[in-house]
Amino acid sequence: MSESSSGVVTNNDSYPKSHSARYSDLSDAHTSQAGPSRQRVSVEQSPDSGFIATPSPSSRFRFVSWYKLEKHDVRGDQLACPRVREGPSEEELFLRGEQNVLMDRRRGEEGQRWEERLQENWENCVELNLSYQDLGDPYQLENFNRILRRLIRVERLQLVDNALRDLSSIRLPRCISLNLHRNHLTSIRQLPKVPRIQHLCLSENSIEALGELALLGATPLQSLTLSRNPCEFLEDYRSRVFSCLPKLEVLDGIPKLLEDSVPPKPLATSRMCTIL
């Protein structure tokens, strides 16, 4: 167990071994991880006023990134499940007299110390799990995107249940397996650039149109998961997907069938299936 670049405890979970059920465990899994860390308090008893709540000794570290702690040599590429922790509000920083921290935040990545960037070492991450981030704070989302932009060597990336809406500005040049289960994507155009993608999970998003799948036609995509998207209820759903992606081998965990090769009906006559 170790702390992430933003303070989360990590583990060594890996992808399922079965090819047809590559994302099945992740698609139905529920996280028990808590949201952003909150200030912990310890209760002390006073002889004249009853109980008094005081901050615990660790509270002063709740906004400190792991690479800013002393006496450790953990690098970012050694972490499996880092968590982007919530940062203090600008008002709190001002009241605490930490305007220098506020200025550092505004400087962003350009102002980050070179030693800290080396210790984060996101450029050398090959497999990374950034799921269940609960990106409700603007600082979290900014830091999350900053990490994604540095993943130039990542091959397997999990971004499950992060309420992501648009990753089109992100490029993952070596990524072959990407899990975006349970996010808020509405279009294939909102995906990151993944020229080497082989296994892509988009289950439980809000994708309605299938025509944009052709944008993935130049990739070596082998398996695709689109279950629990509105497009799943389109007439001739499977044949339309394989029509856009002729090289695709597996859709929603099911290998390509003979009937999937039948040309779909013209789009003008396509309609949504009625579920009684």
From TrEMBL:
InterPro entries: LRR_dom_sf (IPR032675), U2A'_phosphoprotein32A_C (IPR003603). This is U2A'/phosphoprotein 32 family A C-terminal domain-containing protein. The keyword Repeat applies. Residues 1-17, 29-48 have a biased composition (Polar residues). Residues 1-54 are annotated as: Disordered. The keyword Amino-acid biosynthesis does not apply. Residues 234-252 form the U2A'/phosphoprotein 32 family A C-terminal domain. Keywords: Leucine-rich repeat, Repeat. It holds the Pfam family LRR_9. PANTHER family: GENE 29133-RELATED (PTHR18849:SF4), LEUCINE RICH REPEAT PROTEIN (PTHR18849). It comes from Anguilla anguilla (European freshwater eel). It comes from the Eukaryota.
